[in-house]
Amino acid sequence: MSRFTSHAGLGAAALTAFLLAGCSISPATVPQQSSGGSTGSGSACPVTPDDKVTGTIKIGYQAIPNGDLVVKDNKWLESCLPKATIKWTQYPSGAAVLQAFGSGSADISLIGSSPATKGMSAPLNKQMSIKVVWIQDVIGKAESLVAKNPAVKTIKDLKGKKIAVPFGSTSHYSLLQALDQAGLNDSDVTLVNLDPDKMPAAWSGSQIDAARVWDPTLTQLLKGGHAVMSSEDTAKAGKPTYDLEAATTSFLSKNAAFMKVWAACQDAAVKQIKSDPGKAADSMAAELGISSADVQKQFSGYTYLPASEQASKNWLGGKLGQDLNSTAGFLLKQGGIDAVSPATTYTGAVDAGPAGAVK
Questions:
Q1: Where are the domains of the chain?
Q2: Residue 194: is its pLDDT beyond 70?
Q3: Which residues form the signal peptide (predicted)?
Q4: What is the pLDDT of residue 11?
Q5: Around 356, how many Cα atoms within 13 Å sit in the side-chain half-sphere?
């Protein structure tokens, strides 16, 4: 374990009290809401539309270069579901997404594999019931530990230093794994809880010595530092991390028609990333506020899976649930959860149905 410096969290009641212990977010960070994409009227629906889906769908997303941003920027859901109201809300990290699930502010959202595991474990599983329905990406070099001092070659060289990381995120989980594997204890480093958008200022102001974060913030920090290790290294050590899509079980039980269209749109986005990366990067750049060229450089740091692969035993159909169970064991060791749920809880909280239904 390591010393934690928290930038005070927000919220109320038991859920937030627990999140503040290891998943807090800055009070200055307010989820950003929009009703659609950011670059115009959007494009035509790329899949079979459904005009029978109605009501308001509350979708959470994060500033991460994957298919979710392609779907949002092109307003595919708005085009494919003309009688539904699509409400998009941006969250800074998985900790904020868990708060949104707990408060009913989100029906479905991108969330990292570590915070998703927390949501399936005690005590949060008493406050929410969620299932993973999609793998937005398998995280590789696009999420890394960056240090300012050129003399820092390994994580052990950061002993006595301040490392920024968003608490409760996949980066937080991977960093704790790396510290544990390096044999560092709670008196060796200080972890500073910062959302990605707050890191560049802390970095330039020499308030931190290193940061564990994902793109596009990672690319900014690398201009004045270097990568010490990445999530690819963590995966090679048997601890892979993912950006997932989870939804509340109550929402899933009532919205099968929406999920069919949603999964088809996500699959179309993955196929665009692979077949026309320039076009996909243009959409992501509009959402991330960086150049399309910079977005394309980040693609190699992730693995994007089409629906046909996602539904297989290697991913949603088997292995992912096992990985979440393994993640829970480490989180318990670190004090991030109160107890590990039965293995069947994690395997049962992965639903390959939407991916498997994509034609």
A1: 27-138+244-356, 143-236
A2: yes
A3: 1-28
A4: 36
A5: 11
Contact 199, 219 (CB under 8 A): no
Encoding tokens for residue 299? 């693609």
Q: At 139, list the tokens.
A: 């995280």
Single-letter code of the amino acid located at 326 = S
- CATH T-level topology, domain 27-138+244-356: D-Maltodextrin-Binding Protein; domain 2 (3.40.190)
Contacts of 88 (CB under 8 A, 6+ apart): 33, 34, 35, 36, 59, 60, 61, 72
Least confident stretch, 30-44, 100-114, 279-293, 333-347: 30-44
Q: In the structure, how many helices (H) and strands (E) does the chain have?
A: 17, 13
Note the pTM of the prediction, 2 decimals. Answer: 0.87
* Same fold across 27-138+244-356 and 143-236: yes
The residues, any chain, with a CB within 8 Å of residue 332's CB and separated by 6 or more, are 121, 338, 339, 340
The CA R_g of the chain, rounded to the nearest whole Å, is: 19
Report in angstroms the alpha-carbon separations of 152 from 158, 159, 175, 229, 295: 7, 10, 16, 11, 27
Q: What is the pLDDT of residues 305-348, one digit of tens each?
A: 999 999 999 999 999 999 999 999 999 998 999 999 999 999 99
Q: Mean pLDDT over residues 29-55, rounded? A: 74
